[in-house]
Amino acid sequence: MRTALFSLATLAAVLLAGCAAGSATAVPTASPAAAAPSTVASVAPSASAAPSASAPPATASPTANACASIQTLATGKITIGADNPAYPPYFQPDPSTPANAKWALGDPLNGQGFEASVAYAVAQAMGFSQDQVAWTVVPFNNAIAPGKKTFDIYLTQVSYSADRTKAVDLTAGYFDLSQAVVALKANPIAQVTTVAGLKDFKLGAPVGTTSYTYITANIQPTKPASVYNDLDGAVKALQAKQIDGIVVDLPTAFYMRDAQLTGGTIVGYLPTIGAVEHFSILLGKGSPLTACANQALASIKADGTLAALTQKWIYDQGAPALK
Predict the structure, then answer these.
(1) Could you tell me the pLDDT band of residue 259, with boundaries at 50, 70 and 90?
(2) Alpha carbon 204 to chain centroid distance?
(3) Using an 8 Å Cβ cutoff, are 266 and 253 in contact?
(4) Cα(89)–Cα(258) distance, integer angstroms
(5) Residue 297 and residue 283: Cα distance in Å, rounded?
(6) Is 107:93 a contact under the CB 8 Å cutoff?
(7) pLDDT digits (tens, 9 = 90+) for 117-148
(8) 189-205: per-residue pLDDT in tens?
(9) pTM tops 0.90
(10) CA 241 vs CA 182, 234, 264: distances in Å
(11) CB 204 within 8 A of CB 234
């Protein structure tokens, strides 16, 4: 689920709220349009078992040109919103960007990183070239709130929920969330390659989350799982070697490994069982661009672009599958 990663306190609060939200149901989408330019994806689709957002059923849909003809905030351009800091692997840093630049950590404008590259692919499928894309900083909490928007579309790990659609439009999914195990590299659990191999280790997760449910219902370790009031408590327990691993959703696992832990590692992501949460593109409530954004997503799913970008920027970034 999307978490406001700029502070640990906010991260934990959103995690608990998002994980307890239950299953996610995709909104209806339109069918693929013409394939997005192949230059968007720099790798071929992978045959990996990595989960990906499922393609919608085929139905009649407008063309990419029809999407581009809908009025956007700036004539002839599409404005894309993102939170700031822009965290990897969703947005990657640009070595040529000065330290006092508008964007912290990652730079959406360079098109590098999962959500930056997906955003450009979606924009192209909607009929906008790369030089017709404008980026704007929008805090996550502002984006999901009701009211007028300063963007046409928004990508920053927004989990779909029916409750959120009361205030904003959410598209079909572009990334299906899976649970993952985070540990310290020095712990023997770091060498585990299967779900069965996790059974003899001490695992933990925040209370009331789908992560804790996954431990008890699916991993079923021989040692009772530890539960914590928030993610901060779980991280401290891991650092103190009171537990061997923490189960969290995969996007949070990247943040923990790269920003919270010294010597941390993602042991692997876990098979999806039951209802699947997904990230959606967010638009203003009733936006005339929503159907076109769904059409664009269907297009980049159908031509393999989305699968290639997911493999390159998520699963190839140190998140192996646990069988």
Answers:
(1) confident
(2) 22
(3) yes
(4) 10
(5) 14
(6) yes
(7) 999 999 999 999 999 999 999 999 999 999 99
(8) 999 999 999 999 999 99
(9) no
(10) 13, 11, 12
(11) yes
CA geometry: angle 72, 39, 287, nearest 5 deg: 20
Q: Which homologous superfamily does the CATH classification assign to the domain defined by 179-269?
A: Periplasmic binding protein-like II (3.40.190.10)
DSSP β-bridge partners for residue 180: 248, 269
Q: Where are the beta strands (DSSP E) in 69-132?
A: 78-82
At 53, the amino acid letter reads: A
Q: Cis peptide before 89, with omega less than 30 degrees from 0?
A: yes
φ, ψ dihedrals at 34, nearest 5°: -60, 145
The domain covering 29-176+278-315 belongs, at the CATH homologous superfamily level, to Periplasmic binding protein-like II (3.40.190.10)
Q: What is the mean pLDDT of residues 296-304?
A: 96
| Strands 226-228 vs 278-284: parallel, antiparallel or unpaired | unpaired
- Euclidean distance between CA atoms 156 and 48, whole angstroms: 25
Please report, as a single letter, which amino acid is at residue 71: Q
Domain coordinates of the chain in residue numbers? Answer: 29-176+278-315, 179-269
pLDDT of 12-37, one tens digit each? 333 333 333 333 323 333 322 333 33
8-state DSSP, 256: I
- Which residue is it, tokens 């906010």? 10
Q: Cite the DSSP H helix spans in 219-323.
A: 231-239, 250-255, 290-302, 305-310
- As a residue count, the chain comes to 323
